[in-house]
Design brief:
Blueprint (H helix, E strand, L loop, with lengths): L41 H47 L2 H34 L29 H24 L3 H10 L6 H16 L3 H24 L7 H9 L3 H44 L7 H7 L2 H9 L2 H10 L2 H14 L25 E4 L10 E4 L3
Antiparallel strand pairs: 1-2
Helix pairs in contact: 1-2, 1-8, 3-5, 4-7, 5-6, 5-8, 6-8, 9-12, 10-11
Length: 401
């Protein structure tokens, strides 16, 4: 077990349980209280990235140790083989084994260097809140703490989140805008109720919203305050203390922290901002996709009896024909069609029929007395024309786009 001598010399390392955040989602249309979260929360994001790095380092270390051990075993076996050959006096074999032994000794030396390099790298790895060791905060006394929401259902947690934000949103936003360590610490000491996961949840959503709105500088400010809150919360979990009691000790420690600790903080901050940018882009892409799907549904609903979109057909008509439909002037349309090449006229009239812009026999009644019509829509209210060959009166319909 390693210990963080630079910040908490005697705190035993304990991994934080993030499982309760697995199913939280962020809603794209959340109200101002942000009762739901449809993205993996800050807690899981940062923790997962850190765990991945630790797992990769662990695998690398295990691989090096395994290869180094195999090299040592083979080296020892070759030495014994050489000793046995010396007693037999087989010069040719002795020469060959000596060369092999030299190669193995060189390999073994390289593996030792690799082990030393990994040990040095592990020693220099910046500390983070998952690897803090236990300490009693010098003379500071902190009461034991039991998480408030430990036994709540997801629905109950959502309701509490909504009530909390409704009550504290103004103060949360003030906290999010503080730029100095001293100001942040003083504000949290005056508003200790904000030191909880509900505040962190809100800050995550707020940061994503700001990035979606392309307000990147504000996003980075809120992201910084989110990481401050998260460091305090994870410290409290590691110590099994009330987060509110960890505010003053945290800021006392961070003001005196060395370079390694601040590097760790900023590393976490950079990772979080990267996640925010990614989630914001995913939200934008999802919204664009949903808008396209909605437009396609509307288009499908407009399709005429021949499967054509009346809006698209109208826009493809010659300007003279468009004017006829817009003015709902049948005689004008007949004149325009009469001046066109027969093939062109037939092409456009067929498309008008297939899209529902023109309804042949539109003046006829069906058995229920309803006029024949067609779905479609051009500029709100459409004219539905009869078959001019029959000399019947036109039928007009109001059709929504």
């Amino acid at each position: 077990m390693r210990h963080a001598t630079d910040l908490y010399p005697t705190l035993e390392v304990k991994m934080v349980d993030y499982s309760k955040w697995d199913n939280i989602e962020v809603s794209d249309d959340e109200d101002e209280t942000h009762p739901n979260i449809d993205t993996p929360s800050l807690f899981r994001w940062r923790h997962q990235a850190r765990v991945d790095r630790m797992e990769e380092a662990k695998k690398e270390k295990e691989a090096v140790e395994s290869q180094s051990l195999q090299s040592k075993v083979k080296l020892e076996q070759t030495r014994k083989q050489l000793e046995a050959l010396k007693t037999s006096g087989e010069a040719e074999k002795i020469s060959k084994v000596k060369e092999e032994l030299q190669d193995l000794e060189e390999q073994n030396r390289k593996w030792r260097e690799k082990e030393e390099e990994l040990a040095k790298k592990e020693k220099l790895t910046p500390w983070n809140v998952d690897t803090l060791s236990h300490d009693g905060f010098s003379s500071t006394r902190i009461n034991k703490y039991t998480p408030r929401d430990e036994d709540l259902t997801e629905e109950e947690q959502d309701k509490r989140q909504a009530r909390f934000v409704k009550k504290n949103e103004k103060d949360i936003k003030k906290y999010g805008m503080h730029r100095k360590w001293d100001d942040t610490g003083e504000f949290l000491q005056q508003h200790t109720d904000l030191v909880c996961e509900y505040t962190a949840n809100y800050l995550v959503i707020w940061a994503i919203d700001l990035m979606v709105e392309k307000k990147e500088s504000l996003m980075e400010q809120v992201a910084h305050q989110t990481i401050v809150m998260q460091f305090i919360l994870e410290l409290a979990k590691s110590l099994k203390q009330d987060p509110r009691a960890c505010v003053r000790p945290f800021f006392q420690k961070i003001k005196s922290a060395d370079k390694k600790y601040m590097e760790s903080f900023h590393e976490e901050l950079d990772l979080f901002k990267g996640r925010i940018r990614k989630k914001a882009q995913e939200r934008i892409e999802r919204a664009e996709k949903e808008a396209e799907e909605e437009m396609e549904r509307e288009r499908q609903a407009r399709l005429g009896p021949g499967g054509l979109d009346p809006v698209e057909v109208f826009e493809s008509l010659p300007a003279e024909m468009q004017a006829c439909f817009e003015s709902k002037d049948i005689s004008m349309l007949q004149k325009v069609v009469g001046t066109m090449e027969p093939a062109d006229a037939e092409y456009h009239i067929k498309r008008c029929v297939d899209s529902g812009l023109w309804v042949p026999g539109g003046g006829e009644k069906d058995e229920g007395g309803a006029e024949d019509g067609a779905k479609g829509g051009v500029a709100g209210e459409n004219i539905v024309l009869d078959d001019t060959a029959n000399g019947e009166e036109p039928t007009y319909e109001s059709v929504s786009n």
